[in-house]
Design a protein that fits this description.
Largest sheet: 5 strands, mixed
Shape: globular
Strand order of the largest sheet: 3-2-1-4-10
CATH class of the largest domain: Alpha Beta
Number of domains: 3
Strand content: 15-25%
Helix content: 25-40%
CATH topology of the largest domain: Nucleotidyltransferase, domain 5
Distance between the termini: 19 Å
Number of strands: 15
Number of helices: 15
Length: 416
């Protein structure tokens, strides 16, 4: 069976043709046609291919913006934030405790709200208060309700009767120290497919929305999970994209390192201000804030030019391109490590993203090495990891195949 696996990104649409019984057949890419209809770029990427099925993930239009409302900042709000990141979302707002108003929530412009609070049988007041505020405001942004099971049914009814789009699922933190992200991740995916893809008006008809199975970061994380399970070792993926730089880690569970808000041994962070095109100026600004550089006018001008023209193609090895990518990788990895995961035992580091796939091998190694030897970052570095580049861009494809073609996903990840 031939399956076309396509990632519609913010800058490029990447495709992999996979034989579920025999591995990778072909790859292709085309600039994402976000200014017209993303289906044009998708169809151009797979033009000439014969396939039995097509599967699509997407981060076009900025991906999934998620707000988290929880009981208190150090426990359920933190747990919800971790779940949101693992679901392929950019967490744009975290609120803790009973909300006085929805002003900050509205200002964050989320696509989805993750409403959590209280362990099962624990605090009911906060999540009930916040649900009531959303209901009285007749909030129109979809809500994933994943808090205290004791009040789930009543709060679902309250929100639904007020016209708030709501999906209920199991508590993300049923007990202190026990983080269960799976059901909430699945519910966020359901809402993403039903409400968000169509709402971004990336395509004129319904076909594109019907093809998309998940957000791209969710697909990549699924592929990273499969690879981690297959290798049985701690691994790290650094994906430098046009709009964001994402970091994924799959670690071996260790009770001694567990946290009160639950430890996500498979995690992802997304940095919406770090990218090679749309958010290139943010890289320079963040690097200056981290005291990595004294920003030069030429570098800032180059970053602004890239943001103004996301289709800009730099020659291989372009110095500004390499410097922006190096800074984005270093800052993103610093932030990921500071969010909690202990990366000292990472044995495999995989680089992804167009800058790493299309640069000369020496330039790609230089970018990754700079991030992995960043002793000034305040985090413990991996000890002598093996480094590779996802040059065929198979992580997202493997994630799209993993659930019902697991053998094909494993073969794809281990044969390229």
């Amino acid at each position: 069976m031939l399956v076309a696996c396509v990632d519609v990104g913010s800058t490029y649409t990447k495709a992999a043709l996979v034989d579920t019984g025999g591995g990778l057949v072909a790859t292709a890419s085309h600039p994402t046609t976000i200014g017209t209809d993303v289906l044009r770029g998708l169809e151009a990427a797979v033009d000439g291919w014969a396939y039995d099925e097509i599967r699509v993930c997407s981060s076009a239009g900025g991906g999934l913006r998620l707000a988290v409302l929880g009981y208190e900042a150090l426990v359920t709000a933190t747990a919800g934030h971790k779940v949101g990141l693992s679901a392929g979302a950019k967490v744009v707002h975290v609120g803790a405790g009973p909300l006085a108003s929805l002003k900050d929530l509205r200002a964050a412009r989320p696509d989805v709200v993750l409403l959590v609070g209280g362990t099962d049988g624990g605090d009911e007041e906060t999540i009930t208060h916040n649900a009531g505020l959303l209901a009285r405001a007749r909030f129109r942004v979809p809500v994933v309700l994943a808090g205290n099971a004791e009040v789930r049914e009543a709060l679902h009814s309250l929100l639904s009767s007020a016209g708030v789009p709501v999906v209920s699922t199991a508590n993300v933190l049923p007990r202190i120290g026990v983080l269960e992200p799976g059901p909430a991740r699945a519910a966020i995916r359901e809402v993403f497919l039903k409400h968000v893809i169509g709402g971004k008006k990336l395509s004129r008809g319904p076909r594109f929305a019907s093809l998309v199975r998940m957000a791209t970061p969710d697909a990549v994380l699924r592929g990273v999970e499969v690879l981690g399970d297959t290798l049985g070792a701690d691994l790290l993926v650094l994906d430098v994209g046009g709009a964001t730089t994402d970091v994924y880690s799959v670690l071996t569970p260790d009770a001694a390192r567990a946290e009160v808000a639950g430890t996500l041994w498979r995690s992802r962070t997304v940095e919406g201000d770090l990218g090679m095109r749309w958010s290139a100026p943010g890289v320079v600004e963040a690097a200056a804030a981290e005291r990595m550089i004294q920003p030069s006018p030429s570098l800032l001008d180059g970053a602004c030019a890239r943001a103004a023209d996301p289709a800009f193609l730099a020659p291989p090895g372009d110095p500004d391109e390499v410097e922006i990518a190096t800074l984005a990788a270093k800052i993103a990895l610093r932030r990921h490590a500071r969010s909690g995961p202990d990366l000292r035992d990472v044995r495999l580091v995989i680089g992804s993203g167009g800058i790493l796939r299309h640069s000369p091998p020496e330039a790609a190694r230089q970018i990754l090495a700079a991030a992995l030897t960043d002793t000034a970052g305040g985090w413990a570095l991996p000890r002598a990891p093996r480094v590779a580049v996802d040059s065929a861009y198979v992580l997202a494809a493997a994630g799209l195949l993993a659930d019902d073609h697991p053998d094909a996903a494993v073969a794809l990840l281990t044969s390229v």
